[in-house]
Amino acid sequence: MLYDIAQWKVSEADAKKHREMIRKIVEVIKKNRGKLYLTHSTFCVLKSEDPTVETWMGIDEYKDQESYDKFMKEFQKSNPDWAEFFKIKDEWMSFFVPKSLNHKVFIEKPELRIA
Question: Which pTM was predicted?
Fold first, then answer.
């Protein structure tokens, strides 16, 4: 498996608007499920003692490098199939605390999988 993981922060003042945007993102993704190569996608919030910010994480799971590469090739602003997503994404990301976005891709070691 391959995991595309992003983490970012949102101020508590923008938390409600941010969640509304995530709901829109999820709806677009569900509507376009057949165009995706991922096997699973989810959003998480870090349990925190700091009431002024929320730390979010988005995790997309892909079967392998090939499926991830295919998706990344098609998932472009210039692709009209994804115009609705990118329009929402730009507004959604405007709620991120500046310079808080961290994005990484991890490749699972199947021989070390427990479940």
Answer: 0.88
